[in-house]
Amino acid sequence: MPVVDSPILLLGVIGIAAYFLGSVPFGVVMARLFGLGDLRSIGSGNIGATNVLRTGNRTAAFLTLILDAGKGAIAVLVARAIAGEDAAQVAGFGAFLGHCFPVFLGFRGGKGVATFLGTLLALAWPVGLLACATWVATAALSRLSSLSALVAAALSPVWMAVTGRPEGIVLALLLGALVFVRHRPNISRLLQGTEPRIGQK
To answer: pTM for the whole thing?
Structure first.
């Protein structure tokens, strides 16, 4: 954990603001803008980029990926500029919670993978790049988005350690654990061999 130098009240405000930013469901917004219908009734019902891709609209999926990652990164960078590293970690966690449990969708959100990666990139870019590379390598081998996310999440604390960012290990563990929690149905399908592959409608 980083040294807590900022006032607790300020950290609380930053965490709440980051949560509301993270709650913006860009996948739902993109689906509506591109006339794809209600994303929650398409494919897996997830609000993330992978499910947007299942509609066949790659542009909408790409924009969803960038925006979902961006809200985690922006939360971290703004909080760091305002109050330092402790605030950056609080903001990253808040944005991730917002995506997974958004107030605007009755707390039924996405799996958080893009926001997870965007948060890591902003917190410690070498860690973020290693996590992204882990996702890409696993996806290239398996064509399974969920498995790629799980492997990237599991290894993120390791990447924190090997890149000399021990203050980020606890946050990486928390975010990674939540990625696993949000992927419980996917884990079940992976074990059964019924998990849909990337690009499958």
So the answer is: 0.92
